Amino acid sequence: MRLTVSDITIDLGTKPAKRVLDSVSFEAHDREFLSLLGASGAGKSTLLKIIAGILVQDGGSVSFDGRAIDGVASHKRNVGYVFQDMRLFPNMNVEENVAFPCKMRGMKKPARLDRARELLSHVQLDGFGKREVSSLSGGQQQRVALARALAATPQVLLLDEPFSGLDEHLRDDMRSLVLKLHREFGMTTIMVTHDAIEAIEMSDRIVYLSGGRVEQQGMPDELFEHPATSEIAACFGGCSTIAGAVEGGVFSAGPLSLPAQGVRCGSATAVIRQNAAFIDEGMPPVFSVRCCVYRGSTHLVRIDLGDQTLTVPSSSPISAGCLVGVAFDEAGVFVYPGRGGDDGDR
Ligand SMILES: Nc1ncnc2c1ncn2[C@@H]1O[C@H](COP(=O)(O)OP(=O)(O)OP(=O)(O)O)[C@@H](O)[C@H]1O
Q1: Can you give the CATH number for the domain in which 102 is found?
Q2: What is the ipTM of this complex?
Q3: 159-184: pLDDT as tens digits
Q4: Least packed by Cβ within 10 Å: which of 27, 47, 70, 215?
Q5: What single-letter DSSP state applies at residue 93?
Q6: Which part of the chain is the ABC transporter domain (predicted)?
Q7: What's the domain count of the chain?
């Protein structure tokens, strides 16, 4: 199923209403795994609800295989939805929860319970059908929610931060399970996440939302290697974001100078990935060490840039107050015009 989102706009709230999505457009190809990535409040969940038909947009259109579905009720869209808070029915046991979408479609009880058991097996919960949902762990409940979303064989699966309530090792298991089910069932999948590493690990493509607008869309390596804005460059973590100024193709902030060809003169923001900065004895020792933090396999040297900090990894500890030289790998250094959120194209 090809999913097309065209020019979706919505205002929410009153006095005053707030523009939550502004002309959002993207396409998910048949069987694609696409992530909607962005910071909290970017509008990701709102967009998912519009695709599901839970919210109605003020402008624009959603199409499945080229047919607009804007007037189609939520339960007739053939969409599976896993909510962040799962929303399992507490008055039903596990298999009744999973079978519920089939019941809504008029499937007879024995058939829908068979279907529920089959899906529980897919999510590795064989034998859990008669249990109360409250007796399951968070990870097990999340798997029940996933099985329920798949029960009515949806052509589009919508996942809203499906791993956010789980601890790290369970999250890894769930990511693998979701990718396995995506391969087996072959439905087009849209996942909301604010975790950029999760998005690049799992997705065929990523749509990055900020302030209700699409800032960039592309393959994971395109966003990682050529981030369109400082926010996208910084979302992968492990970086220093430094405010400074560009003059004559060079970015400066105190002793820090970086090449910035093609960036217009004036205030600017540099995002420097930690693995793109190195302590280098061959470089002029112009950077003053504020402190050094032990991180197991490495030490993180915090360099004083006035009220800002540049973080550089080091194989050995360096004392506060020392002056060091730093070299940079340009592939991990990004300079944008403007400050923070107001930057434009590089
Ligand atoms: N019913 C509503 N009335 C007013 N404002 C709303 C409503 N629903 C959402 N918003 C606002 O819309 C913006 C986007 O919300 P949304 O939940 O879509 O963001 P998100 O990117 O999914 O964030 P999160 O990751 O925190 O869930 C937020 O500023 C939120 O406060």
Answers
A1: 3.40.50.300
A2: 0.96
A3: 999 888 788 888 888 899 999 999 99
A4: 70
A5: B
A6: 3-236
A7: 2
Atom of ligand 1 at shortest range from CA of 49: 18
CA 35 to chain centre: 6
Does the beta carbon of 14 sit less than 6 angstroms from any atom of ligand 1? no
Domain boundary among 225, 249, 283: 225
Q: Do 181 and 310 fall into the same domain?
A: no
SS3 62: strand
Strand, coil or helix: 232: helix
CB contact at 8 A, 204 and 30: no
Residue 20 domain-assigned? yes
* Reported pTM: 0.92
Ligand 1 lined by 45 (C-beta under 6 Å): yes
CA 219 to chain centre: 13
Phi, psi for residue 217 in degrees, rounded to 5: -140, 145
Residue type, 304: D
- Cβ–ligand 1 distance for 12 under 6 Å, the answer yes
Tokens, residue 236: 């992968």
Instruction: Give the pair of three-digit tokens for residue 269.
Output: 């923001």
Distance 13 CA to ligand 1 centre (A): 10
- Last residue of some domain: 197, 225, 253? 225
